[in-house]
Write a structure and sequence with these properties.
The protein is mainly beta. It has 3 helices and 14 strands. This is SbsA Ig-like domain-containing protein.
Length: 244
């Protein structure tokens, strides 16, 4: 095991997914015998996750997306009305990966992994770029651009749905880190910053950890669920590096 996202220790009851990163490619077929959600008493929470052994892996079989059953997360659906959400505000839970999880090499995990977290009320707020704060770096430096977000954000969205472009529209290359439990986007450029304007392009499919997008809530009526937005649509924030 290398990492689990979200990294926060307190999560909303309408959390949509975990991401589990393994140190080597894993065998897909048996993973759901090893990944479980436990309540505070140590009992398994039944039916919490979508157990698709093929479609929820990264191409290299090192990242598993643990998707909560959307039918239970989203209000108004039969599964939600019948079973309720797997997570309940005010309770604590543990995501556990048991030693039975096997790598493609045939080796099993040497020890179990557990992430214990508390749960708060559901997150029904749409991400809003107007609430983001940009801390511009110094011109002529390779200082890190720091963007403080308006809440915990899906870490894959942060990796793939935000880009920095220069005044001519060219992609700025660099290295990305995330901070403060995925509330900060930290970008260090390969080349020094110029003293001209830059643009932060944010794809409108960017999601927070509850699946809410810039275009609307995950928990909205199916007839207008907001997920038909073109993937190329972007919103833009601008900044200019500080003079030395």
């Amino acid at each position: 095991m290398e990492q689990v996202y979200p990294t926060a220790e307190v999560l909303p009851e309408n959390l949509l997914r975990f991401y589990i990163y393994f140190s080597e490619p894993m065998a897909r077929e048996w993973i759901w015998k090893s990944v479980v959600l436990l309540d505070a008493s140590g009992a398994v929470v039944p039916g919490a996750f979508i157990e698709n052994k093929f479609d929820l892996w990264s191409p290299d079989d090192r990242r598993l997306t643990v998707l909560f059953d959307p039918g239970r997360v989203k209000t108004g659906l039969v599964a939600h009305n019948t079973l309720g959400r797997a997570l309940e505000a005010g309770e604590s839970y543990t995501l556990r990966v048991d030693v039975g999880a096997e790598a493609r090499s045939g080796c099993a995990m040497s020890r179990a992994y557990s992430k214990t977290f508390g749960v708060v009320e559901a997150d029904f707020a749409v991400p809003d770029l107007a609430d983001w704060q940009i801390f511009a770096p110094s011109a002529g430096s390779k200082d890190t651009l720091r963007v403080v977000l308006d809440g915990p954000t899906d870490h894959l969205s942060l990796a793939y749905r935000i880009r920095v472009k220069d005044a001519q529209g060219n992609l700025v290359r660099g290295a990305l880190r995330l901070g403060d439990e995925e509330r900060e986007w930290l970008f260090t450029p390969t080349a020094p910053w110029a003293g001209t304007a830059y643009h932060l392009e944010v794809n409108t499919t960017l999601e927070d950890i509850a699946g809410n997008r810039l275009t609307g809530l995950f928990d909205r009526p199916l007839v207008t669920d907001g997920f038909s937005e073109p993937s190329g649509a972007v919103e833009t924030l601008s900044f200019t590096p500080r003079p030395n």
